[in-house]
Amino acid sequence: MISLNIPKIRCGGCVASVEKAVLSVDPAARITADVPARRVEVETTATAQSLSDALAAAGYPVQEN
Q: What is the topology classification, in CATH, of domain 2-58?
């Protein structure tokens, strides 16, 4: 399980964009988003770096803990 802090996630549309970016890296990933906490949990075989890169490219950079 990979936990990501994504400050720009603010609504359902943001969640859809984040999901699309994650699924482009790992189509089998399972994603849980907590919009108020601006946090996403991803169950995946992909690396955190590959997810971070895809999210940054989609306009949702990951903030380090």
A: Alpha-Beta Plaits (3.30.70)
